[in-house]
Amino acid sequence: MAASVAAPARVASHAPSLTAGRLPRGTAWMVLVGSWIVVGAIFGLVAVASSDHAFNLVGTLFFGTVLFVALLWLLSRIVEGARRAKDRLVTSLVISAFIIALLPLVSLVWTVVGNGLARFDVPFFSESMRNVVGAGGGALHAIVGTLIITLGTCLISIPVGLLTAIYLVEYGHGRLARGITFFVDVMTGIPSIVAGLFTFALFALVFGPAIRTGLMGSIALSVLMIPVVVRSCEEILKLVPNDLREASYALGVPKWRTILRIVLPTSLAGIVTGIMLAISRVIGETAPLLIVTGFTFSMNYNWTEDRMMTLPVFIYTQYMQAAGTAAQASVDRAWTAAFTLMLIVMALNFIGRMIARWFAPKYGR
């Protein structure tokens, strides 16, 4: 007689539930989104009742996050007990701190995009301000000037900064390396207007006080960009394991080739990120460019001659000349120029990440 085989017992589900003394998975995120919706509805009613009908996004996120902390602690206290409620309280406070830290960025993007769409049209990107009085015109001359001056700054700063970082990490020892490190640290804290005054004084001694060119703007921004590139690249190069260098030396590879074929490709992603941060640091500078490049309403493609307009200076001049019947037109152009500058920085960071991904060494082959 064949022995009967008992069917395996079905394993009971231990999924967290309210009856098991645990909140369901994803409760925290549902409470967070629900808190934002509730507070957003309240601010929406206030916006409808107000005269300007402006919705307060930052206030919604802030007070919604505060409500989320209180509600999550209360739910956990009722269902899970005091000990688990304390743990969830600390976790929700960490999440809230992260969200609150992002609020200035959210507010900045919300404000710039909301006001910058007013003149985000074809004429703004295809016309200059030459012979424009009042409404109309565009910022093509400022966009071109910003790209030319930033490109010139990169051509000066990236080779100098990267080679300096390589020297400090791979070759530098003794007083010379310590002196370079000291002066790089000092240059990091130089006010931007000092860089502009230094460049202007340098060129004025040779060409006279009336000189204003895009080249001067690139040199002034290079004074600000080089120390950032040096410090960021230096720290990234230090993260490359010495085992890789020693393995290359053991195979008889010279030091310069080891740096070129091992160290730099390994740290390429971090180097590109540091360079992008340095570009973002200088592309929005206004004070030095007001001194060394001046401002103009016409196109100028020549990097070495005549005044050249940039987006930061364009924003400043449009805001300062906002008066009379054309005041709103100038303010709209200023906001759209700020939005364009933000898009350029985002595009440069995206391109930098793509370059780092394409040229970084591929492992696991």
TrEMBL record:
Location of the ABC transmembrane type-1 domain: 143-352
Transmembrane segments: 28-48, 54-76, 88-113, 139-168, 180-204, 210-230, 262-283, 334-356
Keywords: Cell membrane, Membrane, Phosphate transport, Transmembrane, Transmembrane helix, Transport
Subcellular localization(s) per the UniProt record: Cell membrane
Domain of life: Bacteria
PANTHER family, A to Z: PHOSPHATE TRANSPORT SYSTEM PERMEASE PROTEIN PSTA (PTHR42922:SF1)
Function summary: Part of the binding-protein-dependent transport system for phosphate; probably responsible for the translocation of the substrate across the membrane.
UniProt family annotation: Belongs to the binding-protein-dependent transport system permease family. CysTW subfamily.
Protein name: Phosphate transport system permease protein PstA
